[in-house]
C-alpha cells in the first residue's frame, strides 16, 4: 500500500486495499481473504481516502484558522465575563439609583398636586409678599429633605 491507496473494511472487520477487494469482487470471490466470511459489495466501507499532495499545507491552514477563531472567541468570552462582573459589582449602586429615580417621580407627582395651590396664591398677588415666598421655599425644602442620598 502507498499514501494514495484507499483502505476498505469488510463486515468481518478486516481491512484491505481497495484494489485487492475489487479484484476479489470481479473474480466472483465474495469472501474475506483472511477469515473466509462472505460479504456483498454493498457491505464494503471505504476507510481511507487518497491524500492530496498539499494535504499538510491544507490541514495547517485549517488549524491556523481554527486557532484564530478560538483566540477570538476566548477574547469575546473574557470581555463578556468582565462586563458581567462589573454589572454584578455595581448592582447595589444601580439599585440605589433606581430607588432615587422612583422617589423623584413620586415627589414630582406630589408637587404637581400642590402646584394648583401655589398657582392660585401667585395669581392673587402680582407682587408676592415675603411670607408667600417663604411658603414656597418651605415646600421645596420639605421635598429635598425627604430624599435620602
TrEMBL record:
The lineage of its organism: Eukaryota, Fungi, Fungi incertae sedis, Mucoromycota, Mucoromycotina. GO terms for molecular function: ubiquitin-protein transferase activity. GO terms for biological process: interstrand cross-link repair; protein ubiquitination. This is RING-type domain-containing protein. It comes from Mucor lusitanicus CBS 277.49. PANTHER family: E3 UBIQUITIN-PROTEIN LIGASE RFWD3, RFWD3 PROTEIN. One of its GO terms (cellular component) is nucleus. Residues 3-36 form the RING-type domain. Residues 117-138 are annotated as: Disordered. It comes from the Eukaryota.
Amino acid at each position: 500500500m502507498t499514501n494514495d491507496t484507499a483502505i476498505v473494511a469488510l463486515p468481518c472487520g478486516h481491512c484491505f486495499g481497495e484494489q485487492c477487494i475489487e479484484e476479489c469482487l470481479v473474480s466472483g470471490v465474495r469472501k474475506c481473504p483472511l477469515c473466509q466470511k462472505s460479504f456483498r459489495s454493498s457491505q464494503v466501507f471505504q476507510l481511507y481516502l487518497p491524500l492530496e499532495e498539499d494535504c499538510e499545507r491544507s490541514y495547517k491552514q485549517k488549524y491556523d484558522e481554527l486557532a484564530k477563531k478560538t483566540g477570538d472567541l476566548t477574547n469575546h468570552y473574557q470581555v463578556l465575563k468582565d462586563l458581567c462582573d462589573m454589572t454584578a459589582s455595581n448592582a447595589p449602586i444601580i439599585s440605589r439609583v433606581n430607588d432615587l429615580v422612583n422617589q423623584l417621580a413620586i415627589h414630582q407627582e406630589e408637587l404637581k398636586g400642590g402646584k394648583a395651590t401655589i398657582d392660585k396664591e401667585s395669581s392673587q398677588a402680582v407682587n408676592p409678599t415675603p411670607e408667600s415666598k417663604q411658603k414656597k421655599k418651605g415646600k421645596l425644602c420639605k421635598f429635598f429633605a425627604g430624599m435620602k442620598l
